[in-house]
Amino acid sequence: MRKPRATAATSGPDGLAPAGDVAAIVAGTHGDPFAVLGVHEAGKGFVARCFVPNAEFVTAYTLTGKEVGELTRSNDAGFFEGRLSIRKRQPLRYHAKNAGGDWWLTDPYSFGPVLGPMDDYYMAEGSHLRLFDKLGAHIIEHEGATGVHFAVWAPNARRVSVVGAFNDWDGRRHTMRDRKDTGIWELFIPDLGASQPYKFEIIGPDGVRLPLKADPFAFESELRPATASVTAPPMAHRWGDEAHRSFWQKADPRREAISIYEVHAGSWQRRDDGTFLTWDELAARLIPYAVDSGFTHIEFLPISEHPYDPSWGYQTTGLYAPTARFGDPDGFARFVDGAHRAGVGVILDWVPAHFPVDEHGLVKFDGTALYEHADPRQGFHPDWNTAIYNFGRREVVSFLVNNALFWAEKYHVDGLRVDAVASMLYLDYSRKAGEWIPNEKGGRENLQAVSFLQKMNKELYGHHPGVMTIAEESTSWPKVSRPVHEGGLGFGFKWNMGFMHDTLEYLSKEPIYRKHHHNEITFGLIYAFSENFVLPLSHDEVVHGKGTLLHKMAGDDWQKFATLRAYYAFMWGYPGKKLLFMGQEFAQRREWSEERALDWNLLDFAPHRGVWQTVRDLNYLYRSRPALHARDCEPEGFSWLIVDDRDNSVFAWLRSAPDGNPIAVITNFTPVPRENYRVPLPKAGEWREIINTDAADYGGSGMGNGGMVVASGEGGGTSATMLLPPLSTIMLEFVADESR
């Protein structure tokens, strides 16, 4: 691939730059400005050359303020050069003047490189695990000056420049150094500080100037609709979450209570004028609410920078930058720390499957298909009109793996929920015959994506014990949540999409017809322990005309509320970790929209308050009773008590764990009370009713068993006769032997 001229021969002892090099610098077409600009040996001394548009006079000084030479303007566009009275090469400052005034600037081309040969080696190998400390924009001290070091990967570019208001967005002013072995371009710009918008001006391999590009490693961005990256100061937040992180580093999450509150940060609540809350405002409201409601984790829909609000963050252009919608990056750090201090974890929705084709983003970043595949059969996603990452390119894999490590290290997040994993695993996902390319073995599996996911999980779990990964994966791909060394993808958990689909389909039926769909409930327990599952009632189920969970329930309004309460208790008693999208904990009536806050006034009405109280009590029970969580992912913690009573639409099972009392979960999915109903139980004695979703306090009819049933061994096998309230779930905890 042809590069522009990159040599500059100083012509003789006078040190004057060849006219061709001067013209290339002024035109912004020179491929190696460091060979021309800055400080250079000339005979037994040194010369300085600089490009300062609009200047008429330039005087050179050392960083200590000593004048060392007057430079001569050899090109009217602003190219200056001249001899220096210095004995060794060193950085310079220039005092520039014109008829309108004077100004000072420090010469970026008088400084040496920041990156070193070991960086080159590991970057080229794709094994660098601290790219976020090397690429992007970093405020540093370098060779006696403070400024910003920029570095970006653009291996096929002819030229890359940093542009911003600080140089009038002029791509000739700060052309970067090409580290040819790696395709990395770098430049240290002295005197530049925080909060400066910037982009990269890139000349592609065909000589065409591309639309200005945001920094793939930007740590801060402008608020949309502006799209520039922003120089960010080093994180100033002082963390105080040692206790929280220490607990999870030592814990086995499969055996801990995990109840996740899924939140879209832009629409959970808003200010009275409809604008977004800041991270600090969210922390003051959301964290106490999550604690009071009993959730163990908050999971945010993607909060990395994205240009389009209705994408909900799933079309991200800035994987390393918390979106500017809610304030600066330190604000997000304060939120995470505050949640941790309150005992609540923070999980981020993470999108490594695809990226949008906004021209300021990654698409054709250096004029070529760099982050994506060139062939649309591999590189274009038909469902979302987005570009697909090229998982076969080690630099792209390194970019994404480093991003996972970045959120865990810099922001202490507790987990990543990985979006659209199924779309990554299959080359023919949403494609017809002829629209996809088989793998090297002739199959439909994306082996490169498999390798990427395995590497990401190995590195994240290896470097950050206590952090979990959760796959949104909707197919029967085996061993999604099994270790890589066992042939798995290495995720900690997988969303159980089958549970969500089957149970909601069942409950949409009128109760009289549910007996014909009994297996939609029982079928899920056949595979319930094939993976480490999270049971999701997610945002995907309450948008695009699907209605809310309350709306999905069959029957009149009273039956809808009763069924929803029974469903939640059924789910909290079902094996698997729990996830509930915001608003569903109080039975939001309107379908969710990212454009407005939830309808919090509904909590003033008893039926809605009753649903919230049910969820709150379920979270308390789930967290306090080992039987309900300690064997969520192991078949030893589950056994059927009643599996085949389709005529009454009754289900009953036992949850158990070595260090807790067994709990029976019994659901009646009809509006008919079942009196004198016999439920087999494993132990004779007293079983306390620890929740009854038909309780009057929740908005139910108040039917129940007086808080207790007694199981006896009479009549062949131990059992208890009880009342099953209408459209309800009850949980019974064994508390005392009959012999006591």
TrEMBL record:
CDD domains: AmyAc_Glg_BE, E_set_GBE_prok_N. SUPFAM superfamilies: (Trans)glycosidases, E set domains, Glycosyl hydrolase domain. The keyword Glycosyltransferase applies. Residues 262-629 form the Glycosyl hydrolase family 13 catalytic domain. Pathway: Glycan biosynthesis; glycogen biosynthesis. One of its GO terms (molecular function) is 1,4-alpha-glucan branching enzyme activity. The active site is at D419 (nucleophile), E472 (proton donor). It is an enzyme of class 2 (transferase). The keyword Glycosyltransferase applies. SMART domains: Aamy (SM00642). Keywords: Carbohydrate metabolism, Glycogen biosynthesis, Glycogen metabolism, Glycosyltransferase, Transferase. Belongs to the glycosyl hydrolase 13 family. GlgB subfamily. HAMAP family: GlgB (MF_00685). Monomer. Catalyzes the formation of the alpha-1,6-glucosidic linkages in glycogen by scission of a 1,4-alpha-linked oligosaccharide from growing alpha-1,4-glucan chains and the subsequent attachment of the oligosaccharide to the alpha-1,6 position. NCBIfam families: branching_enzym, PRK05402.1, PRK12313.1. This is 1,4-alpha-glucan branching enzyme GlgB. It comes from Mesorhizobium dulcispinae.
